[in-house]
Amino acid sequence: MLLPSRSKFKKTFKGRIADIAYTGTGFTSGEYALKAMESGKISSAQIESVRKVLSRYLKRSNKQIIIRIFPYKPITKKPAEVRMGGGKGSVEYWAAVIEAGRMLFEIAGEGDDELIMQALKMAQYKLPLKTKLIKRLI
After folding, report:
1. Closest by Cα among 94, 95, 99 to 129
2. How large is the greatest C-alpha to C-alpha distance in the chain, in angstroms?
3. Which helix (H) or strand (E) segment is 41 a member of?
4. How far apart are the first and last CA of the chain?
5. Cα separation of 98 and 82, whole Å?
6. pLDDT tens digits, residue range 2-20?
7. Per-residue pLDDT tens for 77-89?
8. What class is the 40-78+88-135 domain?
9. Is the dihedral of CA 58, 64, 69, 70 positive or negative?
10. Are the CB atoms for 76 and 93 separated by under 8 Å?
11. pTM strictly above 0.90
């Protein structure tokens, strides 16, 4: 699973998620992509499960999977049945904050369009956000 090697602060504020993304909305090096259509958070476990689905579905083809997001935000949680007070809970997992319009995953490499679109369709089921399949126009 992805997580930062180190961070300046152990715990962060909850924060607010912006409506739309201004950066990270275009292609970098891939021909096919998954684009977020709504804002939210994606945990490192969810990113890992999408990576596994894509790599298993594409098997040994000459496709490169590019992960465009990274879980940099620590999400804390207090244990069950604990009274109020006593400070902030411990870090439960790491999450990536996603704005609408951001590219999440890209696939680079020539090959079967149908296979790639089917792999991205399978990856959509693993994500908690609405996403859209996009093909680069050349």
Report:
1. 99
2. 58
3. strand 40-43
4. 34
5. 31
6. 999 999 999 999 999 998 9
7. 999 999 999 999 9
8. alpha beta
9. positive
10. no
11. yes
